[in-house]
Amino acid sequence: MRPLYVTGLSIASALGAGLERTFDALRGGRTGLRPNDFEPFPPPTWIGRVDGLESAPVTGELARFDCRNNRLAQLALAQDGFDDAVARARERHGAARIAVLLGTTTSGILETELAYRGGGEVEALLAARDYAATHGMFSLTEFVRRRLGLEGPAATVSNACASSAKVFAQAERLVDVGICDAAVVGGVDTLCLTTLYGFRSLELLSEAPCRPCDERRDGISIGEAGGFALIEKSPPKGRDAVALLGYGESSDGYHMSSPHPEGAGALLAMRDALARAGAQPGEVDYVNLHGTGTPANDRAEDAALYALFGGAARASSTKGWTGHTLGAAGIVEAAISVLCIERGFLPGTLNTARPDPALRIRVVLESEERPLARVLSNSFGFGGNNCSLLFGRPG
């Protein structure tokens, strides 16, 4: 495939708002996880919570979109000069030639929770709220496209925890067939009790900070985050920009909430990402694992990686910093992958002390300063949704 250059990038997570805060936390080994304080009646676990959302409403012309998910989107859009990068792209291509493709799983579920907590008849409660602007799956995408003044194709992808990785693949296809010249891709997912208690009912929620690939791992830590990337066909002038070189998508069709035990779909996604880039496994310097910290997920991903790379590839999970941000995990880890290439940094696997001896891949525990030419970022989700993204500098 033809590379798509990352000409704008922004992120907001439990590590803080912006790329510099994110990188400083990674380099300093500072987690964003903390004991769960998401009221009311929080289950015992650790979360990656973004501070300040309660006091930062969406106002002005877009006030009808005010909800926690869109507040986090607003925060992320304001970071790292992203607004300005999109404005310049709009001048180059025209507003109708830039797509907006975003991933989310929870969207405005918190707003539905708040309606139920208010008591009374459900129909009356929901009628008093603007469902389309605050609850619906298209709320995030419509809010972002209006805020950025874009008029191109727009879609929300909700394929579980692969959602905001799969939008990169959708963008490439739209650009490839000439429907648009650039795309804003990314995603946002925010905390809500539906998610916290849902994962607890599946016995997937750890009561301690998650420890991916550790022999004592016992589940995930849920986080919230938002992030966006502007991707274009041409590199920015005067910059040696990182690009999306390849992507791979697959579906296991194995189980609603468990991965294929041999990582069959994950392997297909990674192979397809390399094939689209014309790359060999030995050319990948680092794999950012999906790495949730559940016994089954880590085992399945290990099997897939070992089948493709053997024990050679350096791999780590960054969920010990941010938590598992669900539908936003793809964009969070894509942004981290781009940062790692730009800064020459390989993050270790935070909280993991004793790698599971049954896992065969090379799990990096301590962060390293080293040049990285190509990074593979994995995002795998419920229902067997798999997506792998390969980033690097073309040539």
Give a description of the structure.
The protein is of the alpha/beta class. The protein has a single domain, classed as Thiolase/Chalcone synthase (Peroxisomal Thiolase, Chain A, domain 1, 3-Layer(aba) Sandwich). It has 13 helices and 17 strands. The strands form 3 sheets. Strands 1, 2, 5, 6, 7, 9, 10, 11, 12, 14, 16 and 17 form a 12-stranded mixed β-sheet that branches. Strands 3-4-8 form a 3-stranded mixed β-sheet, with no helix packed on it. It has a two-stranded antiparallel ribbon with strand order 13-15. A hairpin with a 2-residue loop joins strand 1 and strand 2. Helix 2 runs parallel beside helix 7 and helix 8 (163-176) packs across helix 13 (329-343). The chain is globular.
What is the topological layout?
Blueprint: E1 4-13, E2 16-17, H1 19-28, E3 34-35, E4 46-48, H2 68-77, H3 82-93, E5 98-103, H4 109-117, H5 122-127, H6 131-134, H7 139-148, E6 154-157, H8 163-176, E7 182-189, H9 193-201, E8 222-223, E9 225-232, E10 243-251, H10 264-277, E11 286-288, H11 295-309, E12 314-316, H12 319-322, H13 329-343, E13 345-346, E14 362-363, E15 368-369, E16 374-381, E17 385-392
Parallel strand pairs: 4-8, 5-6, 5-7, 11-12, 11-16, 12-14
Antiparallel strand pairs: 1-2, 1-9, 1-10, 3-4, 7-9, 10-17, 13-15, 16-17
Helix pairs in contact: 2-7, 8-13, 10-11
